[in-house]
Amino acid sequence: GNDFVLKDGWRMYHGKSIPGFPVHPHRGFETVTVVRKGMVDHSDSMGGAGRYGHGDVQWMTAGKGIQHAEMFPLLNQESSNPLELFQIWLNLPRKSKFVEPHYSMLWKEQIPVKIFMDQDKRETRVEIVAGSLEGSKSPDPAPNSWAADPENEVAIWYIQMEAEASWILPPASKGINRTFYFFEGDQLMINQTAVQVDHGIDLEAHQPVELTNGAREGRFLLLQGRPIQEPVANYGPFVMNTMEEIQETYQDYQKSQFGGWPWPRPDMVHPAEKGRFALHPDGREQFPPKIL
Predict the structure, then answer these.
(1) What superfamily in CATH does domain 112-225 come from?
(2) CA-CA distances (angstroms) from residue 9 to 88, 200, 280?
C-alpha cells in the first residue's frame, strides 16, 4: 500500500492484486475499523487472523508495533462485492505507546442500538460502537485504549435518521472534542443551520444539539473524546510524540519487522467457505454470538 494522505478528515490507500491493504506496519496508536458492507480479512504479525463485516468492528491496538493486512475478499462470484467501512485512528498517550499489540472483535450482535422516535414517530437509530448513551454502553474497548477510561468520554456512534426525523443530540462534558460526519443524505439542520451532505462539523460538545434531517434518509458518524494534550508526530503508518521517535520507529521496524510476517502472502485472504471468525495469537478461535 501507499502512505496515508489526509483529505477532508478521511484517509485511504489500496492493494494491487487483491482489493485491500496488504501487509503494513503500525506503532503508537489504535485502529477502530467499522465495516458497514462487505467483509474484511485480517492477518497480523502476532499470528492473529479473522474475517469480519456487515456491522462488525475490529479494535486493534498497535502499541509497540505490529504488522497487519486488511484484505477485501471477493466472496460473491456472481455479482459485485460492495464494501463500505470507516477506519478511525485513535491516538495512544505517551505512557501507552509501547504496550503489547492487541486486537479484539466487537461483533454486530454485541453492539447496542438505541432507537429514538420524534413527536411525528420518525426514527433515529444509534449504534453505540464506543461510549454510552442513555443507559446503553458499548462493549469494552481494547484494555490499553484511551477509550478504556470513561472520563475520556470517547464515543463512536453510527447514526441513521429517517427522512425529516428530529433528535436532540445530548451533551458531553466541557473540554470534549466532538465531530459529526454527514456522509449520506441531502441536508441536515443543526440548531436551525443548514448543512449539506459530505461535510464534517465540529460541535460544541457541552451543548445539546437539535438535529433535523432532510428529505432523504441520513447517515452520520459521531466521533468524540477528551484530547490527550500531548505533542503528536505522525508519518505514514506511525503516530508518536516527536519526529525523533518517528525516526527511531523506522529504524526499529527495519531491524525487527515488528515480529516478522508468518503468512505465505502479503495480501492474505482466508478460504472462501470461512465465515466470520477471529483467531487470536494464543490460539483461541472466536465466533459471533448466536442470537436465539
Answers:
(1) Jelly Rolls (2.60.120.10)
(2) 10, 8, 31
- Report residue 100 as a C-alpha cell: 503489547
Domain spans of the chain?
20-109+234-263, 112-225
> How far are the Cα atoms of 23, 70, 96, 252 from residue 247, in angstroms, in the given order?
20, 25, 19, 9
20-109+234-263 with 112-225: one CATH topology? yes
- Region 8-18: what's the mean pLDDT? 53
pLDDT at 16: 56
Per-residue pLDDT of 153-205, as tens digits, reads 999 999 999 999 999 999 999 999 999 999 999 999 999 999 999 999 999 99
Cβ atoms < 10 Å from Cβ of 8: 9
Residue 32's region, left for phi above 0, alpha for psi from -120 to 50, else beta, is beta
Whole-number Å distance between alpha carbons of 181 and 206: 18
- Name which CATH class applies to 20-109+234-263: mainly beta
% of the chain residues with pLDDT over 90: 89
